[in-house]
Write a structure and sequence with these properties.
5-stranded mixed beta barrel; about 110 residues; 6 strands; OB fold (Dihydrolipoamide Acetyltransferase, E2P); single chain
Length: about 110
């Protein structure tokens, strides 16, 4: 059961081109936003689409794959774990970030 703890799987479309950062010793970080859509019919029979936006980050080889193959609009699947962190912005206000730390990525389409 340990493999099921804190596991996230998303299939969606890249909302932006990945942001790539290279740190000392060449370690890469890729960060992007993935949009997931859910459609349903409301009480009036109208189709409603709910879009959720997810920040995802990847390191190392996974970041290199994302850098090379993922562009805005590309459909991808990611698997990883949910992480939370905080920081103080330039005005001294505390900001909170929730993101998916990607361990695997699957590319769809051409």
């Amino acid at each position: 059961m340990n493999a099921l703890k804190n596991k996230v799987q998303l299939i969606g479309n890249a909302g932006n081109d990945p942001e790539i950062k290279i740190f000392e010793a060449g370690k890469k970080l890729a960060r992007l936003i993935i949009a997931t859509n859910e459609s349903y019919f409301n009480d009036k029979g109208e189709k409603v689409t709910d879009t959720q936006w997810h920040t995802v980050t990847a390191w190392g080889k996974t970041a290199e794959i994302i850098e090379k193959y993922v562009k805005k609009g590309k459909e991808i699947a990611v698997e990883g774990k949910l992480t939370h962190r905080s920081y103080d912005d330039k005005n001294g206000e505390k900001r909170y970030i929730t993101e998916v730390l990607v361990s695997d990525v699957l590319l769809f389409g051409k």
